[in-house]
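Sorry to interrupt, but I need a hand with the structure work. Could you add the entry underneath, on a fresh line?
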Amino acid sequence: MNYAYEIRQQAEAAPRAALPAVASALWKAFGEGHLSETEAEALSGLIEARQQSDIERSVERIANRTGAPRTGVGSRPRTDASMERRRRWAASGRLPPGLAARFTLAEQAVLAVVAVEVAKRGDCRLAVGHIAAVAGVSETMVRNALREARTHGLVTVEERRLARFRNDTNIVCVVSREWTAWLRLTRSGEHATVARAGRGGCRSPQGTNTPVSYPVNSGVWNPRKGCRQAAGDPADKAPSRNHAGGEAGRAMR
């Protein structure tokens, strides 16, 4: 079965309401290894383009009826750097494959940023604009991703109202057991990697008991000395003098 061809046919023929289901099937097939990264990115771009074009047509129809000016909507990246950040965050592995298959590439990037903040501090209190800038998406996509995650029961979003027209940043907490266990496993793996890097690339040397054929601490065995050391050692000169004296005495007799 050609998964890429089947998903492309569904993405091109499905109505707008069915596109999220097609995207979920796409990332599920990618998580199971039926699609390569290049095919998944191409199909994801096709689905996002379909969604974007449908939204633009809807806004244009509304603008033509009401006379309001057209406004830019959607989450298409404005620069190559933002697209690179989006893909990097989506591929960081901060979501379990089963949960990641429910979201688009942009939504995965948003939830990955939230997951990193939750792993560091226990919850995420970043502003919507901050998350959007880090993940390489729009603020609307951040709100949509958090709303979708809350719909699936993965996170809770606590609003902090300070005044009538002023709020503090929301508090996002991960409540999914599967996601929490995945973050705990990822964090322990990172700690193990850091510990291995701190110890270096080889094991600590340990001594071994090697048997030798001579007593090491006795005076029977003496290492062979060099010429200079032998010349400056009085103990080694004494026998030479006695030996020479003996030979001279015998010669005189």
